[in-house]
Specification:
Length: 343
């Protein structure tokens, strides 16, 4: 089978052939030198991106591993953010821009909306705990922010008097906390794997991406579905959408807060976590920081995890609808198809 590099070289060659015979030798030499420099530069950029998906934004590098470089891409293109950001409406055709760039003819993004301001600043007041030498705000010290139930937790945040690094009630706020790597597989594409043993209960990473309004999430989902089926602006082919919808039942029990996080074009390592029908080895906890309205989805190890094991969670309810796309989770409980979440 022809390797990808060979195909690219042939394509390069086809573009140059009609021009090269007409160039005088000096220009030819200069074109050749430029091509060599560009090739070296592109190899260096590829190597840097493949060595660390987070580009230095996490405390540990997150490398891409491709068991068979000829048949797998060297890395996946997206903008890395260790923390959630507030997304803005994307222009039509944005799905063809994995790096989030705009074509010159595309309109500029809208200014921050009321939604953005709410997401950032609403919420209840924080704590007045005094910082001490050995830290503060541990739940044992009765910090009013410290609360942890099965699937919901609160942590200190921007509304609190304390701050990192002393505060001990911010354990999910330091970015991805364990060594992980992004590994290619033919059937599932990229997946996140443990590069160290992880003890049950340890915080692994949060699902960082763009917080979206429901209208924008629905609009983007339609675009991703179209692109995945070969139409729309994505040009068809492989589209790995990573748009998650969370529903938080508020304490009154009468209302439900819906949170849309899209990590497709802007996200962190969690965007590579694949689905497993048996629930996987990660459990999601909704963590709210005092002073912020929107909760964050944080993943904790739901059992001890060995080095090299793939990290997975369940994308949807077992009894819910499915997408019709095959699931390759390999668990004995596999339902055969990826679950579908109504967006
Ligand atoms: C959030 S992305 C996960 C990362 C993705 N594998 C990639 O290469 O970017 C979700 C997509 O991964 C693929 N995927 C996740 N879990 C899978 C599974 N169990 N079987 C097959 N494909 C899976 C599907 O294409 C899905 O739409």
């Amino acid at each position: 089978m022809q390797s990808r590099r060979r195909r690219e070289e042939e394509e390069d060659g086809r573009q140059w052939k009609p021009v090269l015979p007409w160039l005088p030798p000096r220009d030819l030499a200069s074109v050749s030198a430029t091509c060599r420099s560009l090739r070296r530069l592109s190899a260096a950029v590829t190597a840097r991106r493949a060595a660390d998906a987070s580009r230095g934004l996490e405390s540990l590098p997150i490398p891409f591993r491709t068991p068979s470089p000829a048949s797998s891409p060297p890395y996946a293109s997206f903008l890395y953010t260790p923390f959630p950001v507030v997304g803005s409406p994307s222009p039509p055709g944005a799905f063809s821009h994995p790096w989030g760039g705009r074509r010159p003819d595309e309109p500029s993004p809208a200014p921050p909306s009321a939604f953005a301001v709410l997401a950032a600043y609403a919420g209840h007041g924080g704590c007045d705990c005094e910082e001490e030498a050995d830290g503060c705000c541990h739940p044992a010290a009765n910090c009013p922010c410290g609360f942890l139930a099965a699937e919901v937790a609160t942590e200190c945040g921007p509304a609190c008097r304390c701050g990192p690094p002393r505060c001990r009630n911010r354990r999910t706020q330091g970015g991805t906390s364990v060594a992980v790597e992004i590994v290619w597989s033919e059937r599932k594409g990229w997946g996140l794997h443990a590069a160290e043993a992880i003890q049950k209960g340890r915080f692994v990473c949060e699902y960082a991406g763009e917080f979206l309004t429901t209208a924008e999430a629905r609009r983007r989902q339609r675009g991703y579905d179209e692109a995945a089926s070969g139409g729309g602006g994505g040009g068809g082919g492989r589209v790995s959408a990573a748009l998650l919808v969370l529903r938080e039942h508020l304490p009154s029990g009468r209302a439900c807060l819906r949170v849309n996080i899209d990590a497709t074009a802007v996200g962190n390592a969690a965007r590579f976590i694949n689905h497993s029908c048996d629930g996987g080895n990660l459990g999601g906890v909704l963590v709210r920081n005092s002073g912020l309205l929107l909760p964050r989805l944080c993943f904790f190890a739901s059992r001890d995890i060995q080095v090299g094991e793939e990290l997975t969670f369940s994308y949807g309810e077992a009894e819910g609808q499915h997408t019709g796309r095959p699931c390759f989770c390999g668990s004995p409980d596999c339902r055969g198809f990826l679950p579908s979440e109504e967006t």
